[in-house]
Amino acid sequence: MTIVNxxxxxxxxxxxxxxxxxxxxxxxxxxxxTKEDELDIFLINTTWGQTGWLHRDDExxxxxxxxxxxxxxxxxxxTVPFDISLQITIPxxxxxxxxxxxxxxxxxxxxxxxxxxxxxxxxMDKIIVVSEHxxxxxxxxxxxxxxxxxxxxxxxxRCTTPIDVVNYPIRKFDTTDLDLPLDYDFNFLVVAQWSPxxxxxxxxxxxxxxxxxDEVGLVLKLNYKNNCIMDRFGTTAGIKQLLGGKxxxxxxxxxxxxxxxxxxx
Length: 265
Fold this sequence. Notes:
Elements: E1 7-13, H1 20-33, E2 39-45, H2 59-77, E3 82-88, E4 98-105, H3 115-121, E5 126-129, H4 132-139, E6 142-146, E7 153-158, E8 163-165, E9 187-193, H5 200-211, E10 217-223, H6 229-243, E11 251-255, H7 261-264
Parallel strand pairs: 1-2, 1-3, 3-4, 4-5, 5-8, 9-10, 10-11
Antiparallel strand pairs: 6-7
């Protein structure tokens, strides 16, 4: 008889959040689930801003819930540290919570990361990012730093932790007809949460400047925080303020609220 000593891995991320990091967490969990013969999986669910949670009741959601319950029971009765942590979030939230720690992040839309992110990379044994652009930011950011206690100055203080790029796979869904009342055959699509780093305001401004007199549409799958009715009112008001009530040939549409994976596809 062969006894397999499975490594205990704790995943920390917004597993139930309807957000980019929520989908990233579920992507990681699906991959780890294929290795349950080698890994004993535990899960800590975190929030992501004020985004809403998944409300579907399917096999994957029930499995996620079982991992959360399993983790609570384990941590109440054990003090043995986990072998591996996979922390799915922005780098300033990374911590050493296991023997071997992996930071899994979408990174940043710019070409340079903040000094505090460089400092946090030192806590990780491995970093995974979702794109070569994100890796570039980690590899090419360097600062002069001073040790707070000793006063020692470090030149070219940078990330030295190994980084791998794991791109998102293309998920296949049976699409469904949304029956959107679009006026024109050609339309751009923006999917985003309204925040400064997404540059939503200029996306809208530049669209109407470029296509003011053209038969082109801009579909905005957009919200501020979540998918509630008050958020829809606020998002609608924000778009109307940018548009200014001026007559144009181009069209701007708001698509707001919960959508299934099939509807998004």
